[in-house]
Amino acid sequence: MIEVVFGGAELRAVTPLLVVVVTAMISLLYEVFNEDHSDPARPVWLSLVGIVGGIVATVALWENGHSAFHGTFALDGVSAFTNVVCLLAAGLSLLMAPGYLTSIGVRAREFYPLVLLAASGMMVMGGARDLIVLFLGIEIMSIAAYVLAGIHRTDVKSGEAALKYFLLGAFATGFLLYGIAILYGATGSTGYDAIAAALPKASKLLVLGGVALLIVALGFKVSAVPFHFWAPDVYQGAPTSVTALMAVGIKAAAVVGFARLFIVALAPLHQDWAMVVWWLAVLTMTVGNVTAVAQNNVKRMLAYSSIAHAGYLLAAIVAGTPRGGGAVLFYLLAYTFMNVGAFAVVISLGRKGEANEQFDDYAGLASRQPLIAAAMVLFMLSLTGIPPLVGFVGKLYLIEAIVQAGYIWLAVIMVLNSAISAYYYLRLIFEMYMRDPAGPASAMEPAPLLIACLLLATVGTIFFGIFPDAPLDFARNSFLALR
Amino acid sequence: MIAFYFIALLTLASALLVVLHRNPIYSALGLVNTLFLIAVSFVMLDAELIAMLQVIVYAGAIVILFLFVIMLLNVESEVRSARISKIGTAGLAFVLLFAVELAVFALVRDPSGAQELPAGFGSTELLAETLFSKGMLSFELTSLLLLVAVVGAVVMARRKVES
Description:
The complex is a heterodimer. Chain A has 19 helices and no strands.
């Protein structure tokens, strides 16, 4: 007799996901029948309804200790936090999309449902408590991201970005599946709890081989050095609103997937993987920061900075404690606001036919666009980690968790790296305020939705910098409840 | 045991035919044969459903598609070049790598941990039961994955680029 279980717990777990996916399908179908393409902003509203609906459903339904589908998926505190961060990232990049896509000549309406589908993949990753579910989440998110990176079909760089991302992503998927298969062979299960229970008796050689492959695959998704080579080209080539989604949402989902797998399922092996991830974190933040110093393109600089931030997040995962996990979650929220904000500014300077992405294009911006320049200053300071902005608080708690777990040197290296990063973030501020504009001032106003996006990012950067307690406590408690 | 070695040798021979034969049609037919023989191995492992899927999906659908493409494109026999031999070297390296890996797995295997198969192992009923109980979410998510892939393929392959 087949025992199909689909009860309250299951419905609760998938409702936020269903809201987002169903909205994506409705918006796909709507575009089939919609003949009127006069207003480029119209498809955004429907997608935003899905995003808000997903956030509301998550906030209403999450519950610590929750698990559904035979323990393979959960809507607990950690996945609720991930859902909110990823949906926020998707929502903000949707806000900046319509004006920007029109200006670069992309009229593919599938953009909006694809962003929603990518977000649904991220939500699956956040709640996955089983390697197969994690794999499916990664693939749903990644395939949507490959297409989004190449959605600017007439631009060679966008196509190059999509192809590079796709080929290397497929390669990483191979590693992921192989790692899952070996771990399954060693422990006899793909569920996190069962893996943790079976680890002490399993063959160490097999388990370590599987874990090494998983580190490679997940390291690719979070763009950790030395698996980062795709990131700068893809981030620079993809349309900027997609880059924002990749740098924030995809990274957040991958980091949470990484954290949950390593802190929950592989906790008994902490001694073994901590050393590997330690080196990964140190290499990632150092290479990211040092290379970012040499960049002359702002989008590329932000790509390397996002690699460096992946290093900071990995460093807190090394700690392996609930405190570290909580700090990671909070930092992801902080990173969403400040980094999406920075990309929104990059978009607001673009004109038809010219991207204006070089550092020189920012010269004298303070006199041309004082408000946008001020917002960029805020985001750059927050990314550097200057109080009282959210980036400072986030970094503080990351370092606190790392020190508390006894990794003093890791904390020292991280602080030194922050000092290096100050150079290139402050350099942009210098360009905007201390130099005279190179060309004639253009008086184009940013689209209203883009202004909304900038405002939200600014408010988030300041507000959570001053009042970080509520989300931070939430993040910590949700990781504590995992044990 | 003899049956296993017989099938394994035949599988190896037809796999070699795939990579060594110059005519792509013979290679594709060799692939059909290889996949069919692997299906026979699955039957010997009590995995009848997998064997059936192997025949239907791989031998039946995918390789036939290969054959169609080869015949439609009218691919000629390959000309041996320096590049091919380079790929051959890489292939040899991978063969060695897999041999080492197999040896490692064989060494770490703990024969005392081997268990009796549960009743009905590999049967369609048991697989369906797992798929709709333990694997229900994965099963449904796979359909979402396919939807994303289809939408993505249509977006990327559309001939008319609006601008």
